[in-house]
Amino acid sequence: MKWVFPNHCISCNDNLDEGILCNLCINQLEPTDGRDRLSEIFFQENIDKAFACWWFTDALQEVIHHLKYSDRARVGKVLGKMAAVHLDNSAISSLDILTAIPLHPKKKRERGYNQALWIGKGLSEQVSIPFDASIIHRQKYTVSQTTLDREERLQNMENAFVTSRPLNGLKIGIVDDVLTTGATMSACAKKLKQNGAERVVAITLATPKIQKEKTS
User: Fold this and answer.
1) In sequence order, what DSSP letters do the residues of the chain get, joined into one string?
2) Backbone angles phi, psi at 203, to 5 degrees
3) Is 18 in contact with 10 (CB distance < 8 Å)?
4) Is 115:102 a contact under the CB 8 Å cutoff?
């Protein structure tokens, strides 16, 4: 079966016996120093800490592109497991539950799946923290944040999320692929805290190096 349908590295397309990346491509990924990056994002409200596992380099960007747009949900689960290695235990040891930034149903139908959900599932299996994607939903279809200024981003995310049940006292980790300005994370965290969450930690695969340079 492997001969008929060989497994390939999703970055360089070399044959693989298992996994999603060959050793050469894994070595091209650049881990961050693992520290809290909350001070490096523009929208910090309601987020207590923020962690990213790798820098958002060209190599990782290609991998995440495959995850989001090439109908390869399993890539997310593998990346979630790989990410656990780069998370300091102190970043997640106090969390009660993991969830994911939700997609609007229309966006989910277009893409077929929520990549953040699969990252969260893989991370959950590796760190033994329960994962529950049902605690928060996106009720508002939002446009891409890329071209929006600060005020437009805030308006775009206003009332975008709704929780499904009380979250009294829970310490929650929100999982996503890339941490940029933090606008979406902040809006999600706000809704979780409005419904009783005690603490919210952002956990992502990557963050751009430019954020480090802006704050240095």
Assistant:
1) -TTTS-EE-TTT--EESSSSS-HHHHTTS-B------GGGSS--TT--EEEEEEE--HHHHHHHHHHHHSS-HHHHHHHHHHHHTTS-HHHHTT-SEEEEPPPPHHHHHHHSS-HHHHHHHHHHHHHT--B-GGGEEE-S----STT--HHHHHHHHTT-EEESS--TT-EEEEEEEE-SS-HHHHHHHHHHHHTT-SEEEEEEEEE-HHHHHHH-
2) -130, 120
3) no
4) no
Q: Is residue 19 part of a domain?
A: no
For residue 14, being part of any structural domain is answered with no
| Model pLDDT for residues 57-77, shown as the tens digit of each residue | 988 988 888 887 766 778 899
Answer yes or no: is 11 within a domain. Answer: no
Give this prediction's pTM.
Answer: 0.87
The structural domain count of the chain equals: 1
Q: At what angle do helices 115-127 and 58-69 cross, to 10 degrees?
A: 110
Domain of residue 44 covers 31-215
121: nearest Cα among 198, 203, 26: 203
